[in-house]
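Listing 4. Sequential folding, example run.
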Amino acid sequence: MSTASAAAITPQSFKSGVKPVWCPGCGDYSVLSSITKALAALGLAPENAAIVSGIGCSSRIPAYTSCYGFHGVHGRALPAATGLKIARPDLTVIVAGGDGDGYSIGGNHFLHACRRNVDLTYVVMDNHVYGMTKGQPSPTTEPDWDSKLAPGGTGLREFHPLVIALASGANFIARAFSGDPNGTADLIAQAVRHPGFSFIEVLSPCVTYRPEQRGWKDAVRPASVAVTDDPARAARRLMTDDGFNLGVLYAGRRAPYRAAPQHEPQSPASLELDFAL
């Protein structure tokens, strides 16, 4: 891309004509803005980026962008994105999802995406609730959160995605807050630039089913410690983290997954010879 064309790239370049249908006040509006700002800051053309998602409120994001997009089935965004990145390593691949899609039905894929360390970025909008399906507790919901669908709370220990990501091999781990779209955009750009599997948890309030989450704006703060590339040190930090420290919390040095070299194509007849009795 020429310097002139790169200069013409703005966040608006990545917005489609489809109007978002989230609830008024949903944090996902800001995350969408952050993604388009990050892509523009990276100097990418829309045709050089792809956004993949599963099912849920946050998974609508591909429709609201003008780059390549794939709206997959529930919990399967990461394997679809992995296949895309391996087949088209020239593309910048971002996966957008939520805590239900990513950590419940998609939990197993989350573990193995971290382990494989393919060079893509996973942005999870976490609001500790299933918003699209009317407010059920999600894997990250507090065990004592009382609701009509879970009176008295579930009593289940919540899932800790950043700890799981580190233990499973993610190469970049960060937390952002949707109320800070510029800070979130900067973290997304850093994640894309960092080689390997990058994971960003974005605290994105659900004002419809979790109106108390409006208070997150007073709870979040920049992490008081510098980023580390030491997994043991990062583990100690994350295990004692209260969930509101923002910034890059781990930036590892693992080499990203590399696809095997392509071989010359073979005809069906030559392949059949390998199975001849």
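-- end of first protein; second protein begins --
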Amino acid sequence: MHSLFRLPVARRRKHTSVVLAGLALLLLTAVLPRAEAQQKLLRISAIPDQKPETLNRLYPLLANELSRSLGVQVKYVPVTDYTAAVSAFRRGDLDLVWFGALTGVQARLQKPGAKVIAQRDIDVSFQSFFIANTASGIKPLRNQKGLTALKGKRFTFGSESSTSGRLMPQFYLAEAGVRLGHFAGGAPGFSNSHDATIALVQSGAYQAGVVNEEVWQSRLSSGKTDPKKVIVIWRTPGYANYHWLAQPNLDQRFGKGFTARIESTFVKMRASNPRQAQILDLFGAKRFIPAPQRQYDAIEKVGREIGKIR
């Protein structure tokens, strides 16, 4: 018989308690480092506004740069769509997210205390480009009223929650008297990304669509867009767009001033640094700048007007 079972009952119970306490201590010491590591892991993400291969090139590079600057582990966590990014931020599953103006407002309204910390230089006055297949017969428009030429056409937005691919374009269309039911088939399409919108219009699957200026310029300069098949017909006025949004508890988790350090890391990025130059280029920007939260008040107003914010 095992020696433990030859002991008196009282001593046996005492011995068992010691063993269990020891096991509990071992488990606790094994769990605590993992919990501590999780506390020090900064999880970043972004709305999937471009092809996954583009996002998967950019954000691991950025994660490495942030980790180097901030002295913490940084992990890029991809999301499936715009709504998933907002939901994950609300739950606290993501710490720092690159949002468009609309999704950023939605996320802030669902997470009181969240902080807008930085935007690109081009986000202060961003534009959407209405584009058309050259075989559609749609010519460049003289002004906003000319958007009525899109009535009865096969037209596609980007994502349903995209600021530049849906929200602001729909606002300008409505001002011109064009409603969603005026498009061919009684409704517009939703391509889910700017890359896809350009490809669909270029192929002729849709006669017209709308994309953000940064993706259009990028694909045009890279030769991925054929100017003989698809052209810009109208540019919207400028509006505030993309920005980084941080959870309200980062200073508590990572130390006082941590959120400010994140902002400083972005704002101090320079093209003279080879690593940072690659990141800025993939973002389509020359630099990052501070982003006053009040500039998105107009976006919230438009979002409420078209029913994207309630």
